[in-house]
Each structure stands twice: as C-alpha cells, then as structure tokens.
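ok trying this again, last paste got cut off
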Amino acid sequence: MLKLNHKLILQNKPIWHFCKYQNMATRRGASLACCWVFLLFFMENVHGNPNYGEALAKSLLFFQGQRSGRLPKTQQITWRSNSGLSDGKLAQVDLTGGYYDAGDNVKFNFPMAFTTTMLSWSTLEYGKKLGSQLSNARTSIRWATDYLLKCATATPGKLYVGVGDPNVDHKCWERPEDMDTVRSVYSVSQSSPGSDVAGETAAALAAASMVFKKVDPKYSSLLLRTAKKVMQFAMQYRGAYSDSLGSVVCPFYCSYSGYNDELMWGAAWLFRATNDVTYFNFLKSVGDDSGTDIFSWDNKYAGAHVLLARRALLNKDKNFEQYRQEAESFMCKILPNSPMTSTQYTQGGLMFKLPESNLQYVTSITFLLTTYAKYMKATQHNFDCGNYVVTPNHLINLAKRQASCLIH
C-alpha cells in the first residue's frame, strides 16, 4: 500500500519520485492505492482528526499520478504529461491508457483490474457519502475500464494483459515521459489461457457497469457485454496466466492462489450485475477455500464470500447461506478476541499478515470488515465465533483501529 506524502502533493512537487523509492520493496501493495479511505468515509469523523475526507481526496489524486496515455486538460498533477502513447504498437493494436504499477512504467492488468473492482465496489457501497469526490471516483474507475475494454476487444480470441517488460523496466529508473525501454505486449488466448486475469478483468468490468448504470447507461451496457464475453473466455479456457506467461508476470504478480478464486469472484460480480442464474450455477461448480484468512489482488475467496453473503443477509436468500457462513468464518479468523483467530497484531493494534507489503492486506481486509458490518447493521444481524458474540460494532471498531494506524 502506497502511503502518500501530502507535502509533496501540496507543494506540487513530483510525488512520482517519492512513490518510486518508497515502493522499491513493496510494489504489490501500491497497486491497491489507498482504496481503504472509501470505506472510512461513511464513518462519523469525516472532517475531524484524522480527516478522512482529505485522505480520500488525496488518494484519488494519486491515481492521476499513475495515469498512462494522453492526459486530459483536467489533469491536476501538472508535472505529469503524456506517456506510453505507442503502447500496443508492437501487436498492431491500441493499448494506450490505464495505470502504471507503483513506481514502475509497466502496466500489469491483473492487479490493475483488482484495483478497479475494489474502487467500483467502494463506490457502490459508499457512493452516497462520497460527496464531491464521487465524480473523481468515477473518473478514476473509467480511466482503468477504458483501457481494459481495449485489452478485451482489440483482437478476437485474445485478452491483452500487460504492457512493458518488467525485467527490463526494473533495471531502469526513469520517468514514464522519458522511458526508452521496449513496450512489450502480453496476452492470453485459447492456447495460452489465463482464467485468473480474465476472471478479474470480467469482475472489474461487471462491477464498473453498475457504477455507471444510471449516469451513463450506454457505457454501462458496453462494460457489461464485454464482461460477459471475458468471463466466458475465463470459464471455457482454463489455466493460470502465470503458466502461460512465465517470467514476465512472475515473481511480480504470479497467480499464487490459482485461478478458481478469480472464477468465483468474476462469476459473483456478474451475478450481482445481471441476476442471471447461470452464474450462480457456475459458482456452485467452482472449487472453494473456506479456510482463507487473507484477501488481496491474488486471493479473492474472502471478497467473493462477503459479496455473495450480501444476498443471504439483505435478500434473505437461503441459497446463499453457505457464503454467509464462510464470510463469518473469515471474520472469526481476523478478529483479535475470537477463539478462532489466526491473525497477528502489532503492539499498536495493526493487523500483521505477511512481511512483504503488509498494508495491502490490512486495507483490503479492513474494507471487508466495514462492508460486512454494513450488511449486518442493515439486518440487525450478529454471529458467533465460538462463545464470542460478534456485533457490527466489533467489526467497525477493528476497522477504525486499522485506519488510525494507517493514517497517522
């Protein structure tokens, strides 16, 4: 997770240089780009100390700093300019746009699509409380989905999944405006499958289609149509993109958890966007992992469980009880006072999951805590972790503790 240097932004100095060096050892975490502030915005202390509204605004501003392509006149970070304008040329397609990953000049679609899905989910859940930042949130989402649409539609039978050679890029420290490294293009296909990156791309497009459903119905329909096609590709041609692409995605963004979680995640989002029972039936056929205690760009099981549990709680649909139970099992592994906990905490109360880029796990899990608490509050629901009774406030208080650690 990238922590923004507010002074660099306020003085209009190149935060890009700060980002780059801060993320030399934590690139994966930066891809989430502070999506946690969305989930905090609905809390009571919006303009107090800490000021979540300010954190939200600056986190969205971060996305402008990561933009690739031809920048609009509305660009606020004025020291950034056009870059990557030939992206896709080696494959004779247009793959301009999207976001660079952390301080690199590479576009990794796997984590970028996950970031897009999470931004969309955040906007769907808390959009009414985003105030003046709602339009900025939609703009951030659309900058990614415009690019993902190109990747999904440029060549029939192919899904483009990245631009730029990471092994070369990591040896060369330069601004994207000045880069002279080769802009290699990578894709998955029927013969070189990538169910994981395809499933995540479908999830991103489906979730975004709901964000734009009322404000831009035509664009929303395009996103959903494309999401369906990409999901069909993911389901029909099974395989991990790590196996197909090797060293250009590993060890950077290997699909360590396999691809079943992305198939589940993608189907869950398409079910929510369409209410098509086909996706529900597919969900039942996909392998599951009810023992997970992590949620990240790589492992989506917990997020899928919470998303599907929404139907069990808000719609009282008994067909989704399994996912409610799995979502609550996950919460029991996170809560510090739960007898089932498998999560470590620092002395200051910060969640500790893995030594490399730990904050990405903290922020993603915190989002699930607040969102599940929201569903619980709406239905006056509690659950048990053994003899420990969990209320919505237990989840919210833990989330606030994580936010306090992160923002100070």
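PB: full thing came through this time. Confidence is low (pLDDT under 50) at residues 1-45.
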